[in-house]
Amino acid sequence: NFITQITHRISFTFSIGYRHQQTTAKRVEEVEFDGPCMKTEVPGPRSKILAQQLEAIQSVVQVNFFCDYEESKGNYLVDVDGNRMLDVYTQIASIPIGGYSILYDPELFLGTFVNRPALGMMPPEQFSEKLVNGLMAVAPKGFSRVQTMACGSCSNENAYKAIFIWYRVRGQQFLSLVFSFFFQVPGCPDLTLLSFMGGFHGRTLGCLATTHTKAIQKLDVPSFDWPIAPFPQLRYPLGQFERENAQEEARCLEEVEDLIVKWNQKGRHVAGVVIEPIQAEGGDNHASFDFYRKLRGITKKHGCAFLVDEVQTGGGSTGKFWAHEHWGLDDPADIVSFSKKMLTGGYYQKNSFQPDKPFRIFNTWLGDHTKNLLLTEVIKVIKTENLLDQAKRSGKVILEGLYNLQDKYPHLLSRARGIGTFCAIDVKDEDTRNNLILKARNKGVVLGGCGTQSIRFRPALVFTEHHAHLFLDIFNDAIAELK
């Protein structure tokens, strides 16, 4: 086993009246299964009964099946019908180092995580120390400040606000509190953010204005009229289409600059540009590192803030802790947002993006301090076990296997791509893709779709070469049945 144990060194103190109690989380041993074990189709009978019960009080349209997290271990997810599946999706890329039973441990949650401090107003005594040992220990190059939040959407939403505030303060614009109450300039300036087709940055109101993946996500919801630039549509294999791809990226960069100039000229200034290092929900769309380097140059030229959304790509799955590190820039971004594998949410920011007045970036919780404590231990495991290198090795096996499969089934599969274990492949159409995901699931592998016809692979960092070969064997069997 790559990881056989993890020790939670978290001590949490809480008070009830005059009583004082201290609880320390227990040591949890992890033992991996030797492979998938399927007993029923998925969802099975028990999952269907639970879905009927839940439907009385909540929508179950999005529910795939119900899980038994106490029985789930390491890289394996077990459902309530006893089906044991190799998990290559990890709760939409949210589990960093496996170990479902660790994350679900009842004593840990009921005994330790009793209180949730209002971090914005009354943080615990060791809050700064924990941030230094946790989030700041893996801060992207050039960042010395971090703003904690709860999730990816609220991280980006507040990062947008920080950009607009920065843009106004930097330009020494007149701030009118009275006009802002009535949504009028100059109190509420007509500033904009530029985003990209195929980008996904969240489902809250501001984030939806920059999300361009599925129409249903935005249907019936009013939005902001902000500029949208094309994202490069690369042709694969990359080595055969170098000239065409370079032209495509140049076209998109030219359009970005044209949009910034046009929107500035009509008085709706582009305060910032937001982009993912890899467009995940939109279909695992990649661009060259040179594209991002040139895009960063454009934002500097026109005085736009550059927000890199690392909600899905951050945390090590690409073989570097932050995907934008692959670009090789000394000054890659002004703000970097995160969540998912980071357990908590938030964004790193340059000093100049710290709001000039209190309560401008604020909510009750500003994240979850207990998640910061857990993250500290996760980071120790990642470093101790060299899991970033493991992601590179496992990713190489996955990608080579996907190349072989698309050569074997060229009428079904194409465009295998990825960095580290952050991999994807296209299926010939959406229906076939969805059927393939179901067939793989019933054989014991949990996968996820993205875009219109892609399958994405998001294993945990403890996913080894053994697990990669096991996944590829089962995936091959599912494809053969589909054929």
UniProtKB/TrEMBL annotation:
One example of a Gene Ontology biological process annotation: gamma-aminobutyric acid catabolic process
Catalytic activity, as annotated: 4-aminobutanoate + 2-oxoglutarate = succinate semialdehyde + L-glutamate; (S)-3-amino-2-methylpropanoate + 2-oxoglutarate = 2-methyl-3-oxopropanoate + L-glutamate
CC cofactor: pyridoxal 5'-phosphate
InterPro entries in the cross-refs: 4NH2But_aminotransferase_euk (IPR004631), Aminotrans_3 (IPR005814), Aminotrans_3_PPA_site (IPR049704), PyrdxlP-dep_Trfase (IPR015424), PyrdxlP-dep_Trfase_major (IPR015421), PyrdxlP-dep_Trfase_small (IPR015422)
Swiss-Prot/TrEMBL keywords: Aminotransferase, Neurotransmitter degradation, Pyridoxal phosphate, Transferase
The protein's Enzyme Commission number: 2.6.1.19, 2.6.1.22
Gene Ontology terms for molecular function: (S)-3-amino-2-methylpropionate transaminase activity; 4-aminobutyrate:2-oxoglutarate transaminase activity; pyridoxal phosphate binding
Enzyme's top EC category: transferase
Coiled-coil segments: none
One Pfam family, short name: Aminotran_3
Gene Ontology cellular-component terms listed: mitochondrion
Role this protein plays: Catalyzes the conversion of gamma-aminobutyrate and L-beta-aminoisobutyrate to succinate semialdehyde and methylmalonate semialdehyde, respectively. Can also convert delta-aminovalerate and beta-alanine.
Family of the protein in this entry: Belongs to the class-III pyridoxal-phosphate-dependent aminotransferase family.
NCBIfam families: GABAtrns_euk (TIGR00699)
Subunit structure as annotated in this protein's UniProt entry: Homodimer; disulfide-linked.
Protein name: 4-aminobutyrate aminotransferase, mitochondrial
The organism of origin for this protein: Salmo trutta (Brown trout)
Designated gene of the protein: ABAT
